[in-house]
Design goal:
By secondary structure, the chain is α/β, with parallel strands linked by helices. It has 16 helices and 20 strands. Helix content is 33%, strand content 20%. Helix 1 packs antiparallel against helix 4.
Length: 509
């Protein structure tokens, strides 16, 4: 007589979690970070597996493309053994790190034994190598089958892909252009799904917006219906035994060719063990049909809904207030021969994030690690702006900064110059390549430094990078409102946060 399924399944998960914890302690953290490798804790694995939509079939075909020690596979197999007794399961797992192969083999053997104990059957295929190479290389007559799969479950590696890398070229040839390993795994997982198949994953939230993931979003959303998204309110609860502070989401999506898109469930919790809040939204509230960027808006709770309404109520877009935002034109390593550490005859100011101090530009900064000036000549003139008032925003905010957006005003009255250069690590608000009106610039700076704006951008931006595209997709107060806010800024450094918020709130009302 077969052993009871729940008992066998629980033992399978516990044994796998013990291996994960042992390897998490034993393996070199720097090497794991180099591979973008973060093992899935048992609570996360079980949550992800719970999103699987299980249906009776001759064989359930599963792919785990970055298996690690097999935590996700073990949790999904456990779920199937409990809910579909007697099922036939075909599992393919890929793992590039040879240090993990012995533990992964042990987990797969446990899966086989657990299935046998409850009169189910499982076939396992371990790919000891790179998933991207395996998924994109041509299948020979006697080659391994590359799908299609009914269920793809993944915690992909998090790592940027160089533009000329083998992996990036292979993924582009197979399905779509993308800039990170995790989105490459998601794209190939989509590519290998059967019609009606389901992808379940835990990934960074950053794919939901920003220009770097635009081609991937278009590819993914054209083929997949997002069914469920879960957001964690505390970043350090997702991978609690690592130093990962990336904002992550857990989601499931279904492969479909239908243009019809049904409702989406959005849930949130502080951690795996805390209360889960859930709501349902129409698909068009998550992916706006007219949005050329294909941003994915994730409103986790009623507060997010209220924020979305407040954002929508703002009066203007950037074109409507005759304003544009661009990434700084000077890429320092490409202009190295023109850069100077300090001001000299024939040079003009070059503004880096280090020059931004309390809402103003402090230039020059003596003995700074970065340069202070760029020589003005026929080659560099096109990289600079004419004198005027500009609003400068850091593209990368540090962990210590309270706000995601940090803005300052370049004031032509304080820094007299023939032209100005803005380095590539800042975004610049301007008017058709020229300066802004003084009060407008000051009001825009205060708005960008406000708590309300910070809450808006955190709502859809899951990373610390603030791209010009993110800023273009925001709505803004009207030109008159921004000018009024700017006139209230007393002379000197940026006001305290409470004062900024009071000024903004007063003029928006």
């Amino acid at each position: 007589m077969a052993t009871e399924a729940p008992e066998v399944a629980t033992d399978l998960v516990l044994r796998t979690e013990a291996r994960r914890q042992e390897l998490s302690s034993a393996l070199d953290a720097k090497q794991r970070a180099k591979l973008g490798q973060y093992f899935t804790p048992a609570p996360a694995a079980e949550f992800i597996a719970s999103l699987a939509r299980l249906e009776a079939a001759d064989t359930i075909r599963i792919l785990d493309p970055g298996a690690g020690v097999g935590s996700l596979t073990a949790s999904l197999v456990t779920r199937i053994l409990r809910d579909l007794p007697g099922a036939r399961i075909d599992v393919t797992v890929c793992e590039v790190d040879p240090q993990l192969h012995d533990s992964l083999v042990a987990t797969l053997e446990d899966c086989v034994n657990a299935a046998h104990a409850v009169d189910s059957h499982i076939e396992v295929n371990l790919v000891r190598g790179d998933f991207i190479a395996w998924a994109t290389e041509a299948e020979g007559i006697f080659g391994e089958r590359r799908g299609p799969f009914d269920l793809v479950i993944m915690n992909p590696p998090y790592k940027k892909l160089a533009a000329n890398s083998r992996e990036r070229k292979a993924v582009t040839a197979a399905c779509t252009e993308t800039s990170n390993l995790y989105s490459a795994f998601m794209a190939l997982g989509t590519h290998l799904l059967a019609p009606g198949g389901q992808l379940m994953a835990i990934t960074p939230r950053s794919f939901a917006n920003g220009p770097y993931f635009r081609p991937f979003r278009r590819y993914f959303l054209d083929r997949m219906h997002i069914d469920h998204v879960h957001v964690f309110e505390a970043r350090n609860k997702v991978f609690a035994d690592t130093d990962v502070l990336q904002e992550n989401v857990i989601f499931s999506a279904t492969r479909t060719d239908s243009p019809d898109r049904g409702p989406v469930t959005i849930s949130s919790s502080r951690s795996y063990s805390s209360e889960v809040r859930s709501r349902t939204v129409v698909y068009e509230d998550m992916v706006h049909p007219s949005d050329p960027e294909h941003f994915i808006h994730i409103s986790a709770d009623e507060e997010d809904v209220q924020l979305a309404a407040a954002h929508a109520s703002l009066q203007a877009t950037l074109p409507e207030i005759s304003c544009q935002v661009s990434t700084g034109r000077v890429v320092d390593f490409r202009s190295k021969k023109h850069l100077r550490p300090n001001p000299v005859d024939g040079a003009v100011p070059l503004i880096y994030p280090l020059h931004m101090r309390d809402g103003e530009i402090a230039w020059p900064v003596p003995e700074a690690k970065k340069n202070n000036a760029i020589m003005l000549n026929d080659e560099t003139r096109k990289l600079t702006f004419p004198p005027g008032h500009y609003v400068v925003v850091k593209r990368l905010s540090s962990k210590e900064e309270k706000r995601r957006v940090v803005a300052a005003v370049f004031d032509a009255e304080n820094t007299r110059c023939e032209r100005i250069g803005f380095e590539n690590h800042v975004n610049v608000f301007h008017s058709d390549g020229a300066g802004l009106a003084r009060d407008f610039a000051r009001g825009l700076c205060l708005w960008l430094n406000s708590t309300l704006l910070d809450r808006f951008i955190r709502r859809f931006n899951g990373h610390t990078q603030v791209n010009a595209t993110d800023l273009r997709n925001l709505r803004y107060p009207s030109k008159n409102q921004l000018e009024a806010i700017g006139r209230d800024w007393p002379h000197g450094a940026l006001p305290q946060q409470e004062k900024i918020d009071d000024m903004v709130e007063h003029h928006l009302q």
